[in-house]
Amino acid sequence: MGLRTSAREAPANLQVKAGEIPGLLLGIMLCLTIAVVAAGIQNIQESSLGHPYIEAIVLAILIGLGLRSAWQPSPRFHAGIAFSAKQLLEVAVALLGASLSFGAILASGPALLAGIVAIVILANAASYGLCRAFGLPARMALLVACGNAICGNSAIAAVAPVIGADSKDVAAAIAFTAVLGVLLVLGLPLFIPLVGLSQNQYGVLAGLTVYAVPQVLAATVPVGLIATQVGTLVKLVRVLMLGPVVVVLSLIAPLLPPEGATAQGRPTHLSFFRLVPWFILGFMTLAGLRSLGLIPDGAAGPLKQVASYLTVVSMAALGLGVDVRALARVGGRVTAAVTASLVVLIAISLALIYALGSA
Asked: Where does the signal sequence lie (predicted)?
């Protein structure tokens, strides 16, 4: 699996040449078709059972995964699938800001904010220690630790050039994170009945453990609006920790021993827009406008609905883009290290939730 473009490069990726439009539309239409099927199955559940036991957002992932396992999309579909999985989903996250007021941030209190920072630090340290115990090289261990503790592939892509990581290690870390991220989205709601979480508590858990900001939507939308808002808020704070972590790693990178001949060079500078994805800025801008009353209730509702539709389409693309057979290619040590790191992250996140006593 090749390296995917990081979220910080999204605006440039939106510039599509005229000759690429037909291929782009082909992939988008495939994702849209899966989304329509998923929405139709949800409607059937609602009409026959009174409640959708599996939401369209989850069904889209499952259908995409199943289709990808049985059929390899030709290169003609790749651009549209990638666009749907990335740009459309980032737009959905940005639009979600219109439904969140900064009052929710203030209401969360300094204890939660401090807890998020502590979780990122502890998760990074624990994941790095576990990876080293499993015999992974130092740079590979740092990639897994940052991906696990902060924001998955985006963190891996940001950290790799800073520490001079080997391209094969980066590819392996991203491959496994992509698969495990989908499994986490599908399995995390099971913690609600298992440990008796409220919507607010589940939102905190999702925000602390799910790898990507957009995937938080997939994990929380089926649970409820409160879970979605809290999860997105917690996740955004967690993502913003990427900046300080990258700065720290840039200082210690010269102390790391060389590993392999294909290590990437360190960047000449770190800019704000390399560390903060554009859709987070969009989310924060819309949330600010909402907090100031410049986005009325009549507009916030439709924007949230558009975000939901785009998310279902993007989840179809996410399923289409994940090859479950990649698990067999990344190696047993990486598999064990990443899985153990995720278990530790979930454990300390639950500990924080119970320590805060959130209702």
From this structure: none
Cα gap 325→330, rounded to integer Å? 10
Cα–chain center distance at 19: 31
Q: In angstroms, rounded to a whole number, what is the distance separating the alpha carbons of residues 75 and 68?
A: 13
Please enumerate in sequence order all residues whose Cβ is within 8 A of that of 48, keeping only pairs 6 or more positions apart, or say none.
Answer: none
First CA to last CA distance, the chain: 42
Domain ranges of the chain: 22-356
Residue 344 neighbours by CB under 8 Å, 6+ apart = 123, 126, 127, 130
Q: Is the pLDDT of residue 91 over 80?
A: yes
C-alpha span between 121 and 150 (Å, rounded): 10
Q: Choose among 153, 311, 316: nearest CA to 228.
A: 311
- Across the chain, mean pLDDT equals 79
Is the pTM higher than 0.90? no
Residue 186 CA, chain-centre distance (Å), reads 13
Residue with tokens 């290290």: 337
Give the position of tokens 């939660």: 112
State residue 331's pLDDT score.
67
Could you read off the pLDDT of 346-357 as tens digits, one per residue? 999 999 888 887
Decide: helix, strand or coil at residue 208. Answer: helix
